[in-house]
Amino acid sequence: MSQNFTSKFFIDNRARLRDLLPDSALIVLTANGLLQRGGDTSYPFYQDASFWYFTGCDEPDVVIVFSRTDEYLIVPHRDGSRTAFDGAIDVVQLGSIAGIKTILNEAEGWQRLGHQLTDTKQLATLAAAPAYIERLGMFTNPARLRLIKKIKSQDRHLKLVDISKDIARLRVTKQPSEITVLQSAIDITATSLERIQQLAKTGKYHHEYEVVAELSHDFLWHGAKGHAFDPIVSGGKRACTLHNTNNSGAINQNELLLCDVGADYDHYAADITRTFSLSKPTKRQQEVYGAVLEAQTFALTLLSPGILLKDYEQKMEQFMGRKLSQLGLIKTVSRESVRRYMPHAVSHFLGLNAHDVGLYDQPLEPGMVLTVEPGIYIPDEAIGVRIEDDILITDQGNLVLSDKLARNLI
User: Fold this and answer.
1) From the CA atom positions of the chain, what is the Rg in Å?
2) Is 7-171 assigned to CATH 1.20.1290.10?
């Protein structure tokens, strides 16, 4: 159950989505399903962010159906054995959180939905992702595909309308309650990172996993659910692998240590990176770090309402190109040469997911929350530097939500 959101939050979100769609729209969304870890055990459950945004529900396989005149939840059947191991679904609490009075079992719910489908020509839902995303080497949660197949079995001629962009339009602009929770996630992360930096410089940690363990303890101790994503704690050359989540290397006092982490607080994610020296940094380490810090400072001058992220990223690419040239890493500034040493975008949206939904082809607006994370990675020199902060777009420009955490190399 959410600590910081009342049923009004979810009721209002459903109303806002209905207002974006035709009056006759019938909307059907599904929760995520459990994913097998091995044998009869599953990975820890994490809810589909968009489903949670409209329901506040943290149970798997629940379906919501809503329109301008009707709304109900369909709760999956659990046999006695499953209930004994996983517990029963508290339908009263479920309805109370979501602000929905009608809760139906699977048979009743799908019978009701089937009757509604006979009177509609199209249905609004979230399109299913491919079963396997080739470029990420990652399988996706099959819950949306399962929902679509079940709907199509009711009426194979029914037109399905993908409302991904409509939902992204809602979620990308954060409401005051969301900003408050995001700030808590960011503060927990910043406080924990600050303590880690201080302890690391005393020589307390000998392996990267010790830092991860300390962060896990601190996040939970301060009220977070845990990590919003797999933490990245990498020293030296290992920091040049952007998502190096092995966290198994020995910590060398002569190498820079990169920590890219974020607490999950009431479903919202922080995402902060600090790179710091455990001893007196070399001149080269200072030069690279200084270039990244200058790039981040420049980025913060650009981010304001009306800016297109595409234009912003191009300006950042040019700025970083000049810095790479000054470092003697490239001779000519081009996309290819810059991306050799900075292969990722400088900013992404932040919210219910660390890489949250957003409309990258539309101008920034007040209420949007983004990361600002330039980096330079030089494997041949065993130097990887990234500095990442979380910002809120405001009427005046932007506010750095993670500003309490210093950006010092030493």
Assistant:
1) 23
2) no
